[in-house]
Amino acid sequence: MKGKKKSPLRKCVITNDMKPKKELIRIVRTPEGEVLLDHTSKKSGRGAYISSDQSVIEEAKKKNTLARHLKVDIPEQLYEELLLEANKGNKS
């Protein structure tokens, strides 16, 4: 008897809520210092998970939480990409 495969849980660095990995967006700081979205969740580097909710993304930007967690400045473009990703997920 095969059981249903469990989805791994990850913690949103903004809300501290544990959610299935597929419901979160991963941001990674690569060893070269580049910060980008990691759609595959397999890129090497320091990662942070954030809920794909517009209000959570805006809170992260306001409080600069991602910059503190990843220990690097977060470009404005990344927040725009996060908002686009969150809106894309809400339409599905």
Automatic annotation (TrEMBL):
InterPro entries: YlxR, YlxR-like_sf, YlxR_dom
Listed CDD domains: YlxR (cd00279)
Organism for this UniProt entry: Evansella cellulosilytica (strain ATCC 21833 / DSM 2522 / FERM P-1141 / JCM 9156 / N-4)
PANTHER family attached to this UniProt entry: BLL0784 PROTEIN, YLXR DOMAIN-CONTAINING PROTEIN
Protein name: YlxR domain-containing protein
Source species, domain of life: Bacteria
Domain YlxR intervals: 10-82
Entries under Pfam families matching the protein: YlxR
